[in-house]
Amino acid sequence: KGKVSSTVKKVLSVAGLKSPAQMTPDELTEFERVATDALGELKGELEGEYFPLANSSSYLAKPGGMSAQEAESLAVHGFLFQTADPTGRGVFADQEHRFAVFV
Q: Which residues contact 94 (CB under 8 A, 6 or more apart)?
């Protein structure tokens, strides 16, 4: 059985917030909170988990960010990205690792 993969990139903004590239660390943390609250409401096949980038301290539910094992699993599925400052950044992935949202 073959695997079909596609990538769709869509940059969204949140009312009242700047684009992520222009945000301060505090604004990124607020954006992360708003995004993860919304993504946490997904149910069924879209239900998943948020993984803050390693060394991030902005997501209180996972201080220090994702573990090395979580990072490896996300990387295997093409769902891991790197950034100079992990504050307010992470990956939401469904339980089957079929889709991801980069925050």
A: 42, 45, 46, 47, 48, 100
User: Quick one: tokens of 27?
Assistant: 């604004």
Q: What is the distance between the terminal CA atoms of the chain, rounded to a whole angstrom?
A: 32
Tokens representing 82 are: 């790197």
- When mean pLDDT is compared across 8-22, 30-44, 83-97, the lowest value belongs to 8-22
89 closest CA partner among 49, 30, 13, 32: 32
Cα distance between residue 101 and residue 8, in whole Å: 10
Angle at 92 between CA 25 and CA 49, to 5 degrees: 115
Distance separating alpha carbons of residues 87 and 64, to the nearest angstrom: 10
Q: How much is the pTM?
A: 0.85
